[in-house]
Each structure stands twice: as C-alpha cells, then as structure tokens.
Request: fold
Amino acid sequence: MHREVLFEIVRTAVAILISLFVVFLIVFLVSSQPTEALSKFLIGPLSKVRYFSNVLELSIPLIFNGLAISIMFQAKQFNIGAEGAFFMGAVAATVVGITMNLPRIIHLPFAIIAGSFIGGILLFIPAILKSKWNASELVSSLMLNYILYYFGIFIINYYLRDVNAGYMVSYPLNSSVLLPKLMVGTRLHYGIFIAIAMIIIMYYFLYRTKWGYAIRMTGLNEKFAEYVGINVKKVILYAQIIGGIIAGMGGAVELLGMYTRFEWQKLPGYGWDGIIVAILARNNPLLVPVAAFFLSYIRIGADLMARMTDVPSEVVSVIQALVIMLIAAESFMAKWRHTMVVKRAKEEFYVNNGGSLQ
Amino acid sequence: MKEILKMQNITKVYPNGIVANKRVNFSVNEGEIHALVGENGAGKTTLMKILFGLEQPEEGAIYLNGKKVSINSPFIAIKNGIGMVHQHFMLVPSLTVAENIVLGIEPRKRGFIDFKKAVEITEELAQKYNLKVDAKAVVRDLPVGMKQKVEILKALLRGAKILILDEPTAVLTPQETEELFEELLRLKEKGHTIIFISHKLREVKQISDRVTIMRHGKNVGVFKTSEVTEQDISKLMVGRDVVLKIEKTQHKPGEVVLEVKNLTWINEWGKPTLKNVSFSVRSGEILGVAGVEGNGQRELVEIITGLRKFDKGDLLLDGKIINNLSIKERRELGISYIPEDRMVYGVAAEASIAENLIADRFEKREFNHGILTNIRKIASFSKYLIEEFKIQCSSFNQKVKMLSGGNIQKVVVAREFSSGPKLLIADQPTRGIDVGATELIHKKIIELRDRGTAVLLISADLNEIMELSDTLIVMFGGEIVAYFDDLSKVTEEELGTYMLGLKKQSYEEIRRVLYA
Reply:
C-alpha cells in the first residue's frame, strides 16, 4: 500500500517537473529576458505579502470546486456542473445580499446557505436524470452549465443591475453580508476558514461515515455495491447533490469575500479548475488544498511574469495541460511500477519457497 | 517429429503481483494435438495468452521453427501462423458468419466490401476443412457449437498453422464435442498443430498425442498421452493422491427455508432460459445444482439473490413471498450469496480488506458511533474474521487486489458466512482457487449446514457437487431434469447422462424436491 502511495507521489512530481522543463524551454525560446521571467514565475509570488495573499485568495474557490468535483468523482459520477453551480451560488448570494436587510450574524450565513442550497438543487438535475433514465451526467451537466450561465446573467441584468454604475454590475451588496478581510492591505478573507472547515468535514464524511463509505464503494465497483445491498441509485443522487452544495457554497463565499457587487459577465472558470484540482489530488479531500495551492501558485506566478516581463501568462496553460495529460495517462511510468511489482513478487517468492524461481 | 514451437523460461507477473507463470518451458511438435492441462488458476491460459501476444512475459523467449520470435501483439502472432479460439467467443453477434470470418481482411470491389466474395471464401474454406457452417446465417442465432466452428474458420483463414483452443468443450454438448474432435483430427491430418487447453481428463486421453501438465504456474510434467493414466495426470494436476474426500456427518433436514415455484425467465431474444422451475431447500441441508454451464443456473441464482427482476413465478423465504424485495431487504432476511465472479461482484478490489468485510453491514449500529464509523469495532471485527478464515495478508488495511485468488475468495466467504445466514447461495465457491482455500471453504459450508443454514450449491465441478451436496438437482435447458435424495446411489456417469439431456426423470420423481 505504501508503495502505491509512493508511486503516485513520484508520478505526480515527475509530471510536474517535465511540464516545468517544457515551460523553461519555451521561455528560453521566446523571451529576451529568460532568467528574469523564470524568477518572477517561480519565486515572484513569495516576494511580497500581497502576492502571496493573492495565491491564498485564488486557492479558496479552487478548494471548494476541487472538493465538489472530488466527491462526485469518488462515486464515479463525472458531473462537471460545478462551474454552473458555483456561478449560481454567487447569484443566489447576490440576491440575498441585495434584497434583504438583516443583522450580519444572520445575513451572512443565510447568504452562504442560499448559495449552497441552490447549488445542491441544480446538480440534482443531472443526478436524477442519471439515476432514473441513465442519461450521462457528463453530457447533461456540461449543457446545464450554459443554461445556468445565461439564467444567472438574466437575473442579474434584468432585476439587479445598477444602471448608474456605468458598467454591467449589480447593485452593491449590503455591507452586512460581506465576509470580513483577514489582513489589511490584502483581499484575503475569512472564507479561507470556511474552506478549511469543508476540507476536514468532507474528509471525515468520505472516509469516516457510512454515507461516504457507500459513495466510495459505489465508485470503486458499482456491481459489488449493488450486490452487497447498497442502494446505488440513492448514492448516485446524493453524491452529486453534495457536490452541488459545496460548489454553490464556494460561489457564495467567493462573491461575499472578494467583491462588493456581482461583476461576472462570463463564467469565471473555477468549476473547470476544480476538475484539475480533483485529478491532481486523486479525489482525496486532504490533498485538495495542496493541489489548489499549487495551481493557484503557478497562476499567480505566471501573472507576475506576464506583467513584468515579455512572456505571456498563457504558459500556465501549457503546464496544466502537460501535468493533466501525464497524470491521466495510465501507462505513464507504468513500466517502472510494473518492475516494482515484479521485484516484490519475486522477493516474496524467494522468501516463501526458500530458493530461486524454479 | 520436428519441434515447431518452444517457449522457454516464461515468467509472467500480473500487475496485482500474482505470479501466473514461473519459468515455464513448453514445447510442441509439428502436427500433433498437444493437451495443456491443469486446475483453474494453474497458468494455462496465461501461457497461451503470451503465445498469442495478448500478454507480455517478464522473462523468457519463444522459438518458432527454431527461430526466436518476439510476439508483442496478436497481429504478430497471426502473422506467424498462430491462431487462438478463446473460451468466450470473439464474434460480432449481429453480423453473418461470412462477415465475421472476413472481418478486417474483407474482399473489396470498387472500394466496397464484396459480400458475395466473402460468402464464397467462407464456403470454400468450410468445404476444404469439412467444417459445415451456413455462411449467410447471423451469428447471434447460431448454437454454441456452430459459433466455435466460425471461430476456428476465422483462425484458419488467417493462415493459422498452430491453433490454440482454450477449453473448447466447456460449453459443448457431448455430441458437439464428438464432432469437434473429428474436426480436430482432420485438421491434424492436414498438417495443423493443435494446442488443446482443458481440465477434462477423459477428453485429453481421447484426443491428444502428448500432454503438458501445469500446477501453480509451473510445468510439472510432459508425457505421451498413451503412456499415462487419467489418475497419473490428476495426481500431478492437484499434487496429491486422493482427488477430494470431504468429511461430513449425515444431514438432518428441517423446515423448508427457500421455496421456488414455477419460475420462468425469458431472455432478451425471446428464448426461455428457465422453464417452470420449482424446488425447495430445507434448513440443515445442502442442495446441489449440477449441470453444464449455461443451462439456466446463472439466471436462477440472480433471481433468488435479487440481482435480476422477474415476473413469472414465486420465491418464498420461510413461507413469505419475497419476489419484489430489494437486495438489501433479502440480505436482511438472511440470504447470503457467494457470487460466481468474485472480482466483479464479490469484492471492491481497490478497497481494503476491512472495507470489503463490512460491506453488507456497514450501516448497522454496532459499526457506527453516532454519525462516524466505529473504527475500533471494524478493526477488531476484521481481525477476528482474518484469523477465523485464515486470510493471508499483511494487515486488514491491505488492498484486496494485492491478495491471491484463494485469499480474495476467503474475504468474500468470511463476509457472507459471518452474517449468520438462513439461506446461503454458493455459486462456484471454490472456482480457480488453491487446494487449501478450497478445503477451508468446504469445511465452513458444512459448519453452516450443521448450524441449520439451508445451502444452495451451484458448481460446475462434479467432484465438489457429489462430495458436498446432501441432495441434488440437475438442470438442463432451463429445466430441472432430475432429483436425487441419496447421492450414494448415483454415479458420475449417470449424472452425466442427465446433465447432457440424454435422460430425464418423470414429473413425479422431480416433484419430490418440493417436500410437499
């Protein structure tokens, strides 16, 4: 078992190193100031408190979406509706934040709960389609994202748009609903604690409760789960609803922590990033923050590099693409792993038979 | 005689760490029928998959006509004149025989497939080898024996000089088997070399020139078939003298636990695979179900366990109808089930031993602590079962996929037996596992019986069925064709005639199994 873990760590590390190497190559080819560019990219985020805070800020939505996707992937449900659920979670929080006037202690939690609730309801749609009619959740959740996007934009633009703002944004949110900042001079907000709490809750949920157990068994072998009496259809449903809740919560937290109005005119893309995070984290909640931090770090690094040197920030996409490709490719380094297995099988054989393989 | 094929020092380790072949040497002469025998899991199929390029060995070399070859895909194997007929046929059911035979090497006319030519090719080939098939028939409608002929023709058309047949008779009736043997002899006359995988010794004696015996992934002997007896072969196969003798006391049947009434099942092509099946299993009794595979046993088991929905007939447990209960509800009423395919239904291979052991009871109060699972209880429970069922592992956190076949089966059995079942359905409980594990499982089944569990035992292994069962029914063509309440009065030969549908008991005789 430890060998398996070791193998996955090495494999991920090698994938990252290879992609970084390719990025170095590209930078050296296109840039007139390659060392400058690389140092901005690699250590830029550590050079100022504000930059490092940017990394943490960005990792918050990535954590929420990574968790949402992880829990659905654990049940082998390839629901990628986190994007839409996240977006609508933010819309719901906006509605609550603008139309209601409540004391902070009620208003803020209520806005977050509203976002979570909407997210859960929305991902119930592909879930029920799957469990009732076996419609591929991949396709229906993908299409759902666009429906939700236009629906959200419709709500904001027709009912909550501030015509005096000069650009397409909602009315300002009531200050009683905003998540306070953690540190003066940065945008880092208390949402990070909610994210950490969710990591711990989801870890316990998946690995220490009977519901999480049912999700994992269904994901590992659906036929087995059915045969031991697990209600697989129910599991398929609630895994996706929970995923929706977390994504919706993430949308609400992001909006209330980072903005004072609803400003998105297109999908922010964090739901897609959640897939990357989940893949890097092998769907394990405890690894989600690590993966989210990594992704966030290289994004901010690339951003700094683009702002201060002549290399465009798009190089990050190269890293992402390569890392995911190498991790998703099952036979990447499979030979090394197989050699390991063979070696061990032989060792065991020697021990058991007290001799050679004859 | 000239050696046409030599496999030297072949070692194969599967990704789960199981060593399937250990430095195996295997050699075949030109123009012979060479039998490859061994118990399930002895490594026969693995060796042949390596020869056919489906698996890559860790060590070893393959020589064809004295020349070293590297076979890393079936394509290369075919190019070298090696053909394989798999246990499960690789045909496209919706296409015709001719279309299947020319698949991938279709004759063309102006860029389109020339179907007429395909039929001609097929008929010509069938004529040449005297393998009668209807070139225009759709494969789906053919009986199993026919499909096998199509597979053989497919290999021959691709120029196979060496033909590998993986347990070709497992699915055939005796008449079809006879026909196959005649065909194989004709192929031999025409200079083809045939490798015949089997564990049916009678057939091996009948058809083969030489025999290679494998046990636990090793070659344990090569003989001229005429110079060894079936007993000799079987001794080497299982590695001891007596085939199998199970110690057990006379059974004391109690009340009827399971009653199956007039069960009928029509498959997706409208053919009945279960016809009006009725029988009962009593507490403290092992009722064996004998029969060639594919005569309705699988459907029967899936219906009783709840994996398959049905509409004609009734299932009663303790006199109460359970037709529409879910799998979970049936389990709660005391039905346990050892599935035929342990890797598909029996375990989640990527999960730990402990997680597999609690799978049917993880929601029970004793394994939960409020909303969290009770780790300590799960650990002590797992440790107890690992010890009780002698599961060889490093810890209960080890992944099931790292265990050997026998130990994986022990995990399944430990879970299913420890729930204190009223009714146990054991479907091929010892298929493909080692002797030690088999003995343990047999002992545990008898223990359960003695404690009052009703056991329904389905097995393709006649020896197991005869030794373990108290009473026995035989299935053929979806029907119960015989019932025996005293197994000491039945011989394997007699059982065989029922299994092959040559004989059938009267309605009254069969009805006795209802005990009503």
The first helix of chain A runs from residue 2 to 30.
